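tool_call: predict_structure(chain=1)
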Amino acid sequence: MRTVITVIGFAFLVSACSSGLGKGVRADVTSTMQSSDGDLTKCYADALAKDPKATGELRLALRVVAKSGEFKPTVESNSLNDPAFEECVLGVVSSLKLSKPQKAHLTTTYPLEFVPN
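tool_result:
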């Protein structure tokens, strides 16, 4: 079975200053998140094993720490209503780092859509 993870889109906010925020930062966040597709798919496969009709959106509030580039995610909403799935996704995203850390903390909303194929 193949699962589809769709990034619906995301909006950036800067918590410190606006320097360094641009296409390069957005591309770095996107490619970093995309690098975790395999692990996120495993989280979703586990959710599907419990509920074969599980589908929905998990919206992350994502804080990226200045200088280290570490991702500090929290869940804004989870329409799948599966705490184990949520914890799995948070574990995966918490392990990520930007390839080019920024001077300022970044905050973004990053929605992910999970749909079985």
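agent: The longest strand covers residues 106-116. Proceeding to next step.
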